[in-house]
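assembly run, all chains below
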Amino acid sequence: MSSQPTERVAAVVIGAGHAGLAASHFLSDRSIDHVVLERGEVANSWRRERWDSLRLLTPNWQSRLPGQRYEGPDPDGYMTMGEVTEFIERFAVVSGAPVRTGTDVTSLRRTDDGYHVSTSQGDFGARAVVIASGACNRPSVPPLAAAVPGSVEQLTPFEYRGPAKLPDGRVLVVGASATGVQLAAELQRSGRPVTLSVGEHVRLPRTYRGRDVLWWMDASGVWDQRYDEVEDLTRARRLPSPQLVGTPERATLDLNALTSMGVELVGRWAAVRDGRALFSGGLRNMFSLADLKQRRLLDTFDEWAREAGRDAEVGPPERFEPTRVPSSARLQLDLGSGEIRAIVWATGFRPDYGWLDVPALDTKGRLNHEGGVVDSPGLYALGLPVLRRRKSSFIYGIEDDAREVIGHLAGHLADARQ
Amino acid sequence: MTTVTNGVNVQALLDAREVLKGAPDAAQFTWRASAKWQGGVHSQIKVQSFFGLGEEQNHKEEWSFEADHPEVFAAEDNGITPIEYLLVGLASCLTGGIASVAENRGIQLRSVESVVEGGHDIRGILGADSDVRNGFNDIKVTFTIDADASREDIEALVAQSQKRSAVYDALTNPTNVIVEVA
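ok done. output:
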């Protein structure tokens, strides 16, 4: 318990990543008195919770925050984590965000006139709170991890920095989202043979008709599709990150690319029985689903280009080879045989709301909200997948979301004053 | 969009999905079959009752099935082999799934036919080679579908039906099986 008196502000923003800082920008624009509480430093997750080789999935020209754009020499390149950190830090300085670093929120609860925020550096009282603490605070690891023999080293992406820390020998990478395919490729290149366990995934080419695939997502309007227009919002919010990597070569990193490198593909890891990992025999359909969805998305792009009269400025339509099915994917693997020396769990991330003492979570621990407006007056969220539109969780997508959510927050404060 | 009539009450299924989202207990079903040895390797299996939506349920009538082995197995062939019942289950599950997904997507089906083939090395069950498994080595399903849809849309129907198939899941993923003596 802190002996300091509670500090009163109109609004508290939790988290000084791109989302929290964008919120702060629009709060300052409206002269709303606020603080941004940050457990570590500005852009903390980008500094400490990413592997060394990671670059943004979005091209530099899409690195955009309110009033700040990429102005370097390589608009089509992808930022390293150092560059992202610097980009976000600069935004914090330029926008004069009132950030309190090293301030860990331990509890958020409702009061008669708003919220009480307890932190490691004292308490705050606010009429509104913006949760911008991120969507990827904890790696999600399935319960079957507990059945893996102790002789096999297990890592989450939070512990993984690069291949050097892993033992020599075969590595089982679990999950084929952006994280899984990137780590599988890096480990395979390091001379460690990789087996990749593949469940549902999102296949995308890095470039399409000569443009970055994320240019297409943006230009065609797919990324601007609103949360209340998305057919199956729950599914859209749970969608794994696409199989993309940001490299200077702008190379596609789909399963065919991994197969060509020598990565072994197996089905979704379903169970451990008698010390053996059992993989699903449904791998072929995982490929079919992803291939069909990719083709449908490319059809959408082509249709947009035709209708918008943009065909001349891009290359001719392309169709990619279907995912090659291994002649006989292994259905099981003896975890005790020594063949597999390490397992990397690229099985997703989840937010951590352990400090949230407001009943706003669903039965699966996800925040209940309607376009960032939480079902608790004055409580808001930013920076979650498809929060208000498909681009919400990208740096590029935060400006529109933050403007609208802070607009709602300002309305709430005005109503409360009347 | 013209109304499609594949005969699947998709609205009822969608309604059930919404209701059961908030009532996981009611979603717990137990399916049952009771078998009785008839002599030789012939057995008769009856199916009528099951549990679901919180209470005992019944099929409209009791269904009866004969299982045996063909004459090349030196049996009397009073019914299909047990492993063929897995093919029956898979084909019917995927076909029902295709009809449901088609109805939901507004695709009129005219005919849906399939051939299911399970590759089986019987040295496993005969104990002739301990490296050979007892069950199927692989299963191949080939659909021939006539519908008001592009080939790509038809492929998507078939992919989605696998994604939501109970039997496909039961065959492709391990299941804990407990067998005991009462």
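Chain A is about 25% helix and 20% strand.

Residues 147 and 272 of chain A are 6 Å apart (CA to CA).

not gonna interpret more than that til we talk
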